[in-house]
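Need residues for this backbone.
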């Protein structure tokens, strides 16, 4: 297994200090979007709509993952892709109203904001849901840009680095001078594709080994001190 530092406070401080901008994935690092609103139910509704159109998901597609179904729906037909996007967007906006905040994230965002450097949210979730969460949670003042998924092309979601490039451009920072905190393989791979520093965040033991295998710059099991 790759040697990846875990919960190394000194290294985290160096990464934090050296970056010109902070990029945060949304679901995980900022909050647990589906903590009280199971994603499996959203996936089931999206799949039901696909079946009602007389189509079926390919057998290799994870039928419990809304984002994987969204990609598959677009491949089946543009119309199904638009309908799947609409279903997912509506449910994500509803889900964030009961999302569970990640411990320590508000303090981290406030600390970064105090340095005067830009902060962006970069997520495969819809930007509309992110905006709702930030506004209701009082975090909007810390965020300079929200980069949600492209509603017209889900294939541009992470691990494609498109969203990272768009966010970096919007805040006027070279993406290679950004630091991303994300909790998925897709986050790490997207960051590495553009030379962006990346911290993998994993609270569950089962997620740590797969993330460490991708060789992020640091693995954190908590954001709070």
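Answer:
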């Amino acid at each position: 297994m790759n040697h990846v530092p875990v919960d190394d406070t000194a290294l985290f401080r160096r990464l934090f200090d050296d970056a010109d901008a902070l990029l945060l994935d949304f679901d995980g690092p900022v909050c647990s979007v589906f903590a009280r609103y199971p994603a499996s139910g959203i996936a089931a509704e999206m799949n039901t709509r696909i079946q009602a159109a007389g189509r079926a998901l390919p057998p290799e597609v994870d039928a419990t993952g809304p984002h994987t179904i969204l990609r598959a729906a677009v491949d089946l037909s543009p119309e199904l892709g638009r309908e799947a996007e609409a279903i997912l967007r509506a449910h994500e906006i509803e889900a964030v109203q009961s999302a569970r905040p990640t411990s320590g994230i508000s303090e981290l965002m406030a600390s970064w904001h105090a340095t005067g450097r830009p902060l962006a949210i970069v997520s495969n979730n819809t930007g509309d849901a992110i905006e709702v969460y930030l506004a209701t949670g009082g975090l909007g003042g810390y965020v300079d840009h929200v980069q949600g998924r492209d509603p017209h092309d889900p294939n541009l979601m992470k691990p494609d680095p498109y969203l990272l490039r768009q966010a970096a451009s919007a805040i006027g920072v070279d993406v290679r001078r950004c630091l991303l905190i994300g909790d998925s393989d897709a986050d790490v791979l997207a960051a590495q594709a553009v030379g962006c520093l990346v911290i993998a965040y994993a609270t569950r033991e089962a997620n740590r080994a797969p993330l460490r295998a991708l060789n992020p710059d640091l693995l954190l099991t908590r954001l709070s001190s």
